[in-house]
Specification:
By secondary structure, the chain is mainly beta. Helices cover 0% and strands 50% of the residues.
């Protein structure tokens, strides 16, 4: 499974971004997929995940602001991020696991993208 993220960028607090992750080598409909992020000097943390049949999970810090979704026909995972604040600044990674559902734990994922930078200024 290969994962390629896009959509990162720099913006001011309060703005929105949509990240995309295209999966190849395996049908995304059969994967549990998720978004993780890593800020400088911090551990990689789970942001959101979506199971094979659409079950979603979110970190408390992003609930109500971020929405994870996937387009199985396009083999693409999305993360819509609204009301961004400087604490959201990080490299965002797409990850996948060949499972029905997956915990938002970095060590539990099987495949990773290269990451895309999101920088939010105040």
């Amino acid at each position: 499974v290969q994962l390629v993220e896009s959509g990162g960028g720099s913006l001011q607090a309060g703005g929105s971004l949509r990240l995309s992750c295209v999966a190849s080598g395996y049908a995304s409909s059969a994967l549990c997929m998720g978004w993780f992020r890593q800020a400088p000097g911090k551990e990689r943390e789970g942001v959101a995940s979506i199971g094979r049949y659409g079950t979603t999970r979110y970190a408390d810090s992003v609930k109500g602001r971020f929405t994870i979704s996937k387009d199985s026909a396009a083999n693409t995972l999305y993360l819509q991020m609204n009301s961004l604040n400087p604490e959201d600044t990080a490299i965002y990674y797409c990850a996948a696991k060949m499972a029905l559902n997956c915990a938002m734990v970095a060590g539990a994922m099987d495949y990773w993208g290269q990451g895309t930078q999101v920088t939010v200024s105040s």
